[in-house]
């Protein structure tokens, strides 16, 4: 009897230890390229290299301005899934450089991309055909599309998403120039263009947000991407460069996208 109780206690201890911290777990996904070896000094932080960075024969472009990513890629391990309490730079960085997932992100280090002109691209030392990459919204982009400029009012203060504790209040996205909450027909589309020896090989797109009526073939679709999703790139063929572009239905009078032009990338699978 004592041996049975001891065995059960040891089994329970093992289960508890394995589940002690979900944020320390890494989601296993079949990819040839991951970014787990990129070093970030502290937890819940990000790194913006001065002149881009390389991972396993791939070079990711980075355009840096002061402490911010002006265009291209950086890497992060942030997991902020709510509005900031303030609009200062440090607070905004917590959502700007964080992936939005349904649970605290546990894929380890991933990339954050700021799409600005033609700066968002990576190159390959050896031309290859890419099967897919994993993409997701940043927290900043998701909150801007799902809630607009603010969430809650003085008459009806709202709880901060994923922060059930009080106090309730009015929460702001702090997007320069303002944004509006997405409604029927709205969209945010990520496009990848492939190149080989300077010539475009093709393009593919995925909606990071798709409200009712946007997709002509599936007019009832109504969603935001709220976790890592596969973006198929095989249609690009063999490439030595892939560049990314974002389009959104929320534009100002000059045609400039008001939705934050950011997304996250984690994991890459080459075609066999």
Number of domains: 1
Q: What class do helices, strands and sheet pairing give?
A: mainly beta
User: At the third CATH level, what is the topology name?
Assistant: Jelly Rolls
CATH superfamily: Protein of unknown function DUF4465
Strand content is 25-35%
Could you explain the architecture of this structure?
- This protein has 272 residues and is mainly β.
- The chain has one domain: Jelly Rolls (Sandwich).
- It is built from three helices and 15 strands.
- It has helices spanning 2-18, 89-96, 139-147, and strands spanning 46-47, 53-55, 58-60, 62-65, 68-76, 110-114, 121-136, 150-151, 171-172, 187-196, 199-210, 223-224, 229-232, 238-248, 262-270.
- Strands 1, 2, 3, 4, 5, 6, 7, 10, 11, 12, 13, 14 and 15 form a 13-stranded antiparallel sheet that branches. A two-stranded antiparallel ribbon has the order 8-9.
- A hairpin with a 2-residue loop joins strand 10 (187-196) and strand 11 (199-210).
- The longest helix is centred in the N-terminal third of the chain and has 17 residues, at 2-18.
- The termini are far apart.
- The model is unreliable at 1-25 (pLDDT under 50).
